[in-house]
């Protein structure tokens, strides 16, 4: 019985099909499709993406600066406690 199953799975001595192989191919297919969709949307909406990015760059700076200051402040407080 096991020999018959192995013969069916081998597919004419070409390769074995395992559950992990099927899952891996499925995930690789979705990743490849996702990459293609991201590239397509970036090309299609490049003007909109660049306009949003340039318009909101000051907003990103205003968001990042307080976070960086807080991280450095907490780091210096921890260093002063450890000394």
Element layout with pairings:
Blueprint (H helix, E strand, L loop, with lengths): L1 H9 L8 H26 L1 H10 L1 H26 L1
Q: Major sheet, described briefly?
A: none
Number of strands: 0
H/E order of the elements?
A: HHHH
Low-confidence stretches: none
Strand content: under 5%
Q: With helices defined by DSSP (H or I, 4 residues minimum), what is the helix count?
A: 4
Structural class determined from secondary elements = mainly alpha
Radius of gyration using CA atoms only? 27 Å
Commentary on this structure:
- With 83 residues, this protein is mainly α.
- It has two domains: 1-44; 47-83.
- It has helices spanning 2-10, 19-44, 46-55, 57-82.
- The N and C termini lie far apart (71 Å).
């Amino acid at each position: 019985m096991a020999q018959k199953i192995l013969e069916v799975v081998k597919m004419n001595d070409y390769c074995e099909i395992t559950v992990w192989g099927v899952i891996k191919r499925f995930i690789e297919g979705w990743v490849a499709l996702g990459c293609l969709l991201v590239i397509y949307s970036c090309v299609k909406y490049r003007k909109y993406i660049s306009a949003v990015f340039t318009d909101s760059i000051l907003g990103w700076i205003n968001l990042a600066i307080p976070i960086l200051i807080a991280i450095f402040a907490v780091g210096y407080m921890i260093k002063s406690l450890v000394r």
